[in-house]
Every structure is written in C-alpha cells, then in structure tokens.
Amino acid sequence: MKDHEKPSVRASLILEAFEKTWEKLFDSPVHLDTALSQVPLAYKSILAQILPAILARPVSWAEQLGVGVPEGEPWSLNASELKHWPQARWMAARMYAIMANPSPPLVALPEDFPTWMIRAWELAWGSTDELVQSLAAPAGLSLRASRKIGAQGLLAALKAENALPVSAECSSIVPFGVRLGGYASVLKTQAYQRGHFEIQDEGSQWMACFALWPELFQDGLQMRPGKVSKFNTGTLPSLPSSLKIIDACAGAGGKTLAMADALRGRGRFFAYDTSIKKLQALKRRATRAGLTNIQTCHLTEGQETEILAAYESSADLVLVDAPCSGWGVLRKNPDLKWRQTADVVTRLTEVQARLLSLYAPLVKPQGRLVYGVCTFGWNETREQVDNFLKNHPEFSVLSGGFLGPSPCDGFFVQAFQKNEKKPQTL
C-alpha cells in the first residue's frame, strides 16, 4: 500500500480538505454546493456527507459525538470566529472515523438553528418541533421528467442505463416528478443529454403546476408549513395556445421550463431576470429540452419600470417567484442559517413588495398573478399578501397556502385574480 493510500494519511488529507472548505464558507459568500465542487474528487463524496451534516445539526451532532459545545455556540460567534471553530474539525474527524459503522437515528435539537430564527418560527407557528426535524433531515434528489417521456418512462430509461444505484419512485406530489432515495450521477446519462429531465425539487415543480392549474393543485396546500399529504393531481387539461405567461424572477428558468413543458410547448413564455448568466443558462436548458416558445429578457435592476411599461395589461399569467429568506430549502442549503441575520428578512420583504407592485400592472383583466416564495416566514407570506391587497384593490384572492417542508422543499404560494376595470362614475 502506498503512503497516500494508508488510512491515517487519507484521514489527514480529508480533514485538511474539510478545514479548507469550512474556512471558505466563512471567508466569502460562496454557497455550499460551490464550495464542495472545488474539493478534490478523491474526497468529495466524503465531505459531501460530513459538511452538510455539521451545518444542518451542529449541536445535536456534537452531543452524539461527545464534542463539547459552549452554551450559545455556534450562533454567538461572528464569521471570523466561525471560520476557526474547533468543534467543527473535531466533529468532522469523529464522523469520518465512524462512517463505516451505521449510526443510530439522530433527533435534531432547536439549538441546531439560530435562536432568532427559532423565535420567529415560534411567534408565527407556536410549536416548532416538526419544522426542526424536517429541516434538519438530509435532502433528497428529485427529477422532473419531460412530458414527452413521463415519470414512468424516465425511470425505465435510467434503469436501462444502470444510472440508478439508489431507490427511485414516481412523485406523489407532482405528475412528472421522480424521487430518488439518495445521490446518483444522473447528469452524465444519455437521458439528460437528450433533454428527458431536469433536476428540480418536487415543491418547485408543484409551484409551476399550481401557477397554471390552481384549481387542480390547491388541495395540496395547508394553512401552516408541514409535511405534504399525498394527493392525486389527475389529468392535466389543455390550456389555450394563445396564453401569454411571464416569469418575473426567472433565474436559470426551472419553473419557466416546467410550465412550458407542461403545456407541451404551447403558449408564449417571457422570462425576465437581472442576471445575464442565468438567462443564458435558461436558453441552453430550453434548447436541450426542445422548447422554442420561451423568450428571455434581461432587466437592469432599478430600471425595470421603463421596459415593463410596454407590457402593461398584456399577460394571462404572471409568476413572481420572489427572493426570500429561503427557510423552506434549509435541508439543501444548511449553510444559509450560518450566514443569515434577522435584518436580512426585513430587507427581503421590501424587495418582495416592490416586485409584486412592479409586475402586477402586467396582468390583464381577469388574468392571474401568482406570488411564491420558498419560505414560511409570516411577514414574507401571509402578511405580504395582506399588504398587497391593501395597496392593490383591483386584485382579489384565489387559493393560497403552504406546501411542505417534507418530503419536498417548503413553499408558500398565493394566486390573485385581476378584476375587470369598473367604469368611472361622474
């Protein structure tokens, strides 16, 4: 056995890679996925298990592993102190040492989340036990099958390529979803290259379907965040090919692509965003999927009004999937809670209100506006809806509520309908 293959040497190299990656998270605003992508391939799969686990459950894992954590830590530490937090390295070392042996189920603790975050949840929802357990659990991997192949067809295609080393099943939440029991290298498959699927959380897929068919998908909504109940969406009816649909915060286009594919390439889609790189990624994904009915539009932040004025009262549907605190996706992005502060949420509510007011005029009379966020904070959801209605009496509420978290990411959606303009009275 060569020196670099000896267990003691390998453990040392893995811990060195862990320390570098951990420091990188607090040195810059890089996200966890990006930080892991820069890890040497030989250690990536190990760190992909250890790092998210510590970020998601720092206190409960410390207790499980016998690592002492001073009261109030890690949330009482600043970024510079977190960068060199010794408990993280001790936990990583012990995790690696026991990875070959199955560990007992771990119960998450409220202390695994910042105190201010738990207090906000308690203020809005009372008991936080279900949220703590759901958001500390490992995130699954979900795929959205192209409508031309379907969920069952995608499962068969991936199995034929021997690309599913984990369990897989059709989603119980969305019609084209496939839920995997763990990580699988699916982006290297022929099915992906042929445009047969995209990686997309079931909750994100669901929001796209709800935007198009709220009357079919509203039964999946709940009054408060929590585990999704199983329900059958049934057959998706056809919609007019003349539909004009605007995705206001399209990003790289996950929901734009899901909606366009669900309509079998019918309708006209306009994807707006302030990031050129994200819109370029959307174009590439649309080409791979064979979708030709999507037009992208780059907006300059702060100067959107001038460009959007030309589209006033023209859209049948406007989706505003707004920037938010992201509490509903903490399973996938546990590093978020290490970076976020309470004042960030306040600033985000201002952004959300601005976006709703900016895009509401684009909806035609009797058209639909759908507001969505991947969070469950009260002031970003119910309170945001109440404030919008006060400032925009031309809209009335349709269906709305919470989806997840568990088994999908957590979302809040609200559909509004724009009323016909009433004639002015003299």
What secondary-structure arrangement, pairings included, does this model have?
Layout: H1 7-27, H2 32-37, H3 41-56, H4 58-65, H5 79-83, H6 86-98, H7 115-125, H8 129-136, E1 141-145, H9 150-160, E2 168-170, E3 177-180, H10 190-193, E4 197-199, H11 202-212, H12 214-217, E5 244-247, H13 254-262, E6 268-273, H14 276-289, E7 294-298, H15 304-308, E8 315-321, H16 336-339, H17 342-359, E9 363-373, H18 382-391, E10 395-403, E11 411-418
Feature tags:
426 residues, alpha/beta, Rossmann fold, 2 domains, 7-stranded mixed beta sheet, 4-stranded antiparallel beta sheet, 15% strand
Explain what you see:
The structure is a single chain. The chain is α/β, with parallel strands linked by helices and 426 residues long. The protein folds into two domains: 3-112, no CATH class; 202-418, Rossmann fold, CATH 3.40.50. Helix content is 42%, strand content 15%. The chain is built from 18 helices and eleven strands. It has helices spanning 7-27, 32-37, 41-56, 58-65, 79-83, 86-98, 115-125, 129-136, 150-160, 190-193, 202-212, 214-217, 254-262, 276-289, 304-308, 336-339, 342-359, 382-391; strands at 141-145, 168-170, 177-180, 197-199, 244-247, 268-273, 294-298, 315-321, 363-373, 395-403, 411-418. Strands 7-6-5-8-9-11-10 form a seven-stranded mixed sheet, sandwiched between helices. The protein has a four-stranded antiparallel sheet with strand order 2-3-1-4. β5 (244-247), α13 (254-262) and β6 form a beta-alpha-beta unit. α11 crosses α13 (254-262). The longest helix is centred in the N-terminal third of the chain and has 21 residues, at 7-27. The termini are far apart. The model has no long low-confidence stretch (mean pLDDT 91).
